[in-house]
Amino acid sequence: MKTDIEIAQEAELTHIREVAASLDIKEDDLEFYGKYKAKLSEDLINKVKANADGKLVLVTAINPTPAGEGKTTVTVGLGEALHKMGKKSVIALREPSLGPCFGIKGGAAGGGMAQVIPMEDLNLHFTGDFHAITSANNLLAAMLDNHLQQGNQLRINPKQVIWKRCLDMNDRALRNIVIGMGGKMDGVVREDHFQISVASEIMAILCLAEDMDDLKDRLSKIIVAYDYDGKPVTAKDLKAVGSMAALLKDAMQPNLIQTLEHSPALVHGGPFANIAHGCNSVRATKTALKLADIVVTEAGFGADLGAEKFLDIKCRKANLTPSCVVLVATVRALKYNGGVNKADLGSENLDALKAGIVNLEKHVENLQKYGVPVVVTLNKFITDSDRELDYVKSFCEERGCEFALCEVWEHGGEGGIELANKVISSIESKENNYKPIYPDDMSLEDKIKTVATEIYGANGVTYSAEAKRTLAKLTEMGFGNLPVCMAKTQYSLSDDPKKLGRPTDYEINVRDVYVSAGAGFVVVITGSIMTMPGLPKVPAAEGIDVNADGKITGLF
After folding, report:
1. What is the pTM of this model?
2. Is 71 a catalytic residue?
3. Band (105; pLDDT cuts 50, 70, 90)
4. Is 301 annotated as catalytic?
5. Which end of the chain is more exposed for a tag (fewer CB within 10 A), N or C?
């Protein structure tokens, strides 16, 4: 059996101008990065704003397991299927982070016959967007520390610096560090921290900004520290906004690539969903809606994280209305939630399936609370028995969901026709009453409680003393009307990654809170979640190589 990278490397790519033509994009509206990648020009983005919007379809999933779910694979395959059916469609994805690529998760280009290509480019440096974000983030950090060194006119309290440096790599040794060691000219000694670039507020801002003016306005609001009187110090105060915006100028433009079947894909931005808002850029999504009749996008990790943030943050901030949500699961993952070891998932086990399907049930219930039509799809494996497939189908239909089998990994677009038809039918015939799960004027604590109880199924919320103080301060500062961005483990509905299925009788533990004023949300850190991941005992990086001809191996 061929690996994903082997399939991608054997594919015949079409020049990106031909892919663009399927969306009526002319060559002059593209900024080429070689033959197979291009950025959309600012002129094109402005030109299509007068077009009518297409329909927006969100693809999400149950909580991820070692058995695999294939959310991105389904997203790509659904886009291929719609294209094969003659629909003017486009998929809108996030860019992969180098951290998971060289860590444990691997790449994020889909899989099998449902991939976006060029796969190696996408999973590595791509068009340099993440490097620009990292540079802008660290420029702000450098200017802050330089201000401390050069007399500290803003009276910044070095013990109240909250801006972190970043790196797009899993490096746990950088989580907590001391900087400024050495001589007098080497800076002010203080504690500092790193987070992964995809968790940076700059990433969130890039993904939520509508245009350059909006980007600069958001950058200006970033709170980097507090002064000795407890007042916030911003990027604007440090006079860093213009230079950061200059670094981000090209990164603001969405990237166009193709699937294995040459259907178009806009790939832009990449915030993690477990520690950030987990959606591709508003610019890419809104432009896609002006270019196509159907746009298929995805949100990171399970529906408790990515979909909740898509529906409560991105749609709220960008005035978007999803027409349908596709919820991805696998029989294998459901049996894993039911207590089956990974090695035994290939054997039929209806009892384990019935025990584990409660995870899918909770996600269905959650999505229905937003008033949007839901289609459940099973990413089919060859080991799935007919009895198992029939059980899941009946289970979903009894709960008012459309259901479709998906075989895009093996068959590409052809394997997604059944799902595509269900999506189109839901868009055209199902009632859509989308609304966020909480209103803007609800208090921050009540917003956190609403997500914890309504979406996660917790009994309530507990707070560290510091988190309680910060919530009170943020409310006093005027940030109480912002949505909350929950940072939580992706592996469980709870904040404990070991609690599989549908946990009950537990509380969500909030240990820290901070405001991303430029992004426009309040980040809530729960459980033991880290904003700088670490590498596993055997990182994927050990198996990656490149030969004398430049052919990369081991990237998956």
Report:
1. 0.95
2. yes
3. low
4. yes
5. N
